[in-house]
């Protein structure tokens, strides 16, 4: 487990992970080394604590929520496949050109739509498919920092929800979320250079 492999073939399930994530062999190998370095106790999986060593996540206001997404269904550990799968959402779109794009395959994890889905679930904590006013408030609180008063935050939240809320139910559905981010360069915003 602890020995450093220099061949992608030594990564468990490498072909499957490659197909699923779109990472090249070389990138997967680099990610695998990163995974092994983060796994300081050579457990073969990463814990929440291990992931907190990633600088790009430590400085991201939503870093804790991104870390949560490595641990679906209350699990406490993530193996290499799960690690690569989450990071694939942050893979810059053009980095590895069209790789092995088979039209019968599902959309790549780093497509605009999948990046949006990933971003949406960072907001939608109770997973009911909508960002409630309170869920929006919590995210904005993380993002705006301490220089904003509670009252300002409340009104920013109201404005943000109202601007996106087309059907007037007081919450932001995935479609509304997508529309409100239409003009934003989500591909760029959601590209984190994790390998540095
Ligand atoms: Ca919700
Ligand atoms: Ca709505």
TrEMBL record:
What are the GO BP annotations of this UniProt entry? Answer: cellular response to calcium ion; positive regulation of calcineurin-NFAT signaling cascade; positive regulation of cell population proliferation; positive regulation of protein import into nucleus; positive regulation of transcription by RNA polymerase II; protein transport
Coiled coil stretches, renumbered: none
Q: What is its main location?
A: membrane
The source's superkingdom equals Eukaryota
Q: Where in the cell is it found?
A: Cell membrane; Cytoplasm; Nucleus
> Which Pfam families does this one have?
EF-hand_7
Residue ranges annotated for the EF-hand domain, each copy included:
111-146, 152-187
CDD domains linked: EFh
| This protein's GO CC annotations | cytosol; nucleolus; nucleoplasm; plasma membrane
- Which is one GO molecular function term here? calcium ion binding
- Print the keywords alphabetically: Calcium, Cell membrane, Cytoplasm, Lipoprotein, Membrane, Metal-binding, Myristate, Nucleus, Phosphoprotein, Protein transport, Repeat, Transport
Give the record's family classification.
Belongs to the calcineurin regulatory subunit family. CHP subfamily.
The protein's name is Calcineurin B homologous protein 2
Naturally occurring in which organism (per UniProt): Cricetulus griseus (Chinese hamster)
Name the gene that codes for it.
Answer: Chp2
